[in-house]
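Hello forum,

I keep getting stuck at the same step: I have a sequence, I want structure tokens, and every attempt I make locally crashes halfway through. Rather than fight my setup again tonight, could one of you with a working pipeline run this one for me? It's a single chain of 101 residues.
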Amino acid sequence: MDKSYWVYILASRKRGTLYVGVSNDLEARMHQHRTGQTKGFAWLYGCRRLVWFEMHHDIEEAIWREKAIKRWLRAWKVQMIEAENPDWHDLAADWFPGQET
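Reply #2:
Ran it on my machine without issues. Output:
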């Protein structure tokens, strides 16, 4: 069975507050973030815009990567986001038509 795990970064706005997470179902997790089903850091600071993600096939590797990115300087995270998404578009905008971030 080929399982996928996702390390992702949410932002409150362009160059705003950042949240780093990991999930085995990125679309479902984004729905949770957007609808307030999880009332943690991301909800409190309005981090609902998916600005970066990467896939892994091993949960241990994904968790290691999430923890590593969390330890990074903010500038490194911004640089990684802007290398792939310079305008900080919401990469999940098409997943939930009609929902604002």
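The first strand starts at residue 5 and ends at 11. If your local run keeps crashing, start a new thread with the error log.
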